Amino acid sequence: MSDNIDFKIRKVIKSLKSSPIRNVANSVIGKKNIIPLYFGETDIATPAFISKAMKTALDDGHTFYSANQGISELVETISKYSSSLHKKKINSSRIMVTSAGMNALMIAAEALVNPKDKIICITPVWPNFMRCIEIMGGNVIEIPLLHSKKENIWKLNLKEIKKYIKDAKAIYINTPNNPTGWVMNSQEQSEILELCRKEKTWIISDEVYERIIYDRKVAPSFLDISKDDDLLIVVNSFSKSWAMTGWRLGWMIVPEGLISIFEKLNEFNVASPSSPAQHAGVVAINEGEKFIEKMIHDLKISRDIALNNLNNFSRVIFPYSQAAFYAYFKIKDISDSEKFCFDTLEKTGVGLAPGTSFGKGGNKWIRICYAKSPDLLNKAFEKLKPMLS
Ligand SMILES: Cc1ncc(COP(=O)(O)O)c(C=O)c1O
Fold it and tell me: Is-above-0.85 flag for pTM?
């Protein structure tokens, strides 16, 4: 790009941070024998019964725009699914289907973030919502999780949140969390909800990993404890629970009475999500429980392989990963995680994600996605030995 021409691109867009994960991955595009542990997805394809439903939807002529809210069958299905998971009625009038979780997050930012608004983000966290805030001209206030050495898990820093919440328009929380595997408990959720009610602060709860949890069916959700008109947006997705990352299908649950605001934004983002994909989404939810059960069983095996292997390296420390499918670990004596990932990729062919992707303070931290077969994971750790020992 010529430096002499002023293309008048918005300053915030020009200075938007590119993803360090992508930078690492892009360096080996087209290369063979890479073990990619950097991206957040399983290595299994979408189950055949869901793909078949998509084919049937196409054959049946479901190839037109849908309502902005989504097809009524899917909205109703999500309402029933969500109500049964969270043991309370989630009205279909609060649900909008989106082109995946990412699109729901962007729509949430468009609806709420004015230029200069302060939005609290609990970090480390998958960075995309922080970038959505910046695209809208808002300011990100990062409040890092604390490493509780006693229990060896991540903990919410409530004291720090209380300091900033008064001036914040919203707080963004992703639990179960990417990259740490942290799960917010119901007590913490109640405290945050009470605080936000008092200060009239929005909660944007990113719950795309709610089913990727190993000791119960579903993670604690703000839906469990909130009222229909709380200032709460819950974001969810088909990507992780039903192995549908490439489909781009998700949903958001908004306060009662506000759906028309979000429908308007869906219109001006994508008009409506893919119609045939929405028909397949109905089948994914209605017939997908066995698939989720098997996936969680397999992920548990992979998690144990990953955590046991990491435990063997004395340079490596990590708070226990309670959920989602990531291990997030610190290598005590490194100072540039991005450089470490580039070096590791070059020397071993194993792709890792640098901690700098997930907020400030990630220079010694690395994330791997362990949602891979035991064979591949064992092979990856064999190759990683010289880098981590
Ligand atoms: C925390 C979190 N939220 C949202 C998403 C978006 O997922 P999708 O856009 O595939 O639904 C991801 C994807 O990795 C994620 O990790």
Answer: yes
